[in-house]
Amino acid sequence: EPGKDLECRAESLRHGESEAGSKLMDFGLSQDQQMLRDAVSRCLADTSPLSHVRECAERDNPLSDQVLRALNDLGVAGMLVPEEHGGLGMTLLDAAVVAEQLGYAVAPVPFLASQVLAPIALRDAGSEEQKAHWLPKIASGEARIGVAISETIEVRDGAGVSSAGGKLNGTALFALDFEGADAYIVADSGGRLHLVGANASGL
């Protein structure tokens, strides 16, 4: 039957097989990534209803400790931290799965800088001492790091950071996850990255 043939062919394509039997590229999420998506979705449904998001938005500190703790319990804080430093050693696609759910729920928590950009920067460019000190703390949720690197793409009027004699001078705009951070990764005008403690003089 023509209809049955089409149905069978569609079923074959869904399972990644062409008519010739060759494998097709699968752009879908893996089973583990689907489980991750569902776990984060359930967590946010339980801890971050829209009423809680509105409550956070109306106060001085818009971040939610209860949502952050719940996500930390799932291991989200350490998903991009290498396993040797106490993290899960997951991928950017895994982080994108989590980011999608955070955006869908309008979750009032830091993520892009503190749990994606900062771990990657420290992993790839940090000294061994910096890795040993910060990465385990990021993975456990004990520390958060903000990131100010937008000037590496475009310098706006009144902004820009210079580096001389071990000191930074200038203004960095659009610092991501700035609120409550323990340190900041700041890019200077030459594209070099600097790790600055939150209690640094002149910050």
Structural write-up:
By secondary structure, the chain is of the alpha+beta class. It has helices spanning 2-14, 31-47, 50-57, 65-74, 92-105, 112-125, 128-140, and strands at residues 145-148, 160-164, 167-171, 183-187, 193-197. Strands 1-4-5 form a 3-stranded mixed sheet, covered by helices on one side. The chain has a two-stranded antiparallel sheet with strand order 2-3. The termini are far apart. Mean pLDDT is 87; it is low at 2-19.
Contiguous low-pLDDT stretches (5 residues minimum) are 2-19
Which radius of gyration do the C-alpha atoms yield? 21 Å
Strand residues, percent: 5-15%
**Order of strands, widest sheet:** 1-4-5
Number of helices: 7
Q: So what's the overall shape? A: globular
Largest sheet: 3 strands, mixed
Name the average pLDDT.
87
How many E strands? Answer: 5
Distance between the termini: 74 Å
Q: Encode the helix/strand succession as letters.
A: HHHHHHHEEEEE
Computed structural class: alpha+beta
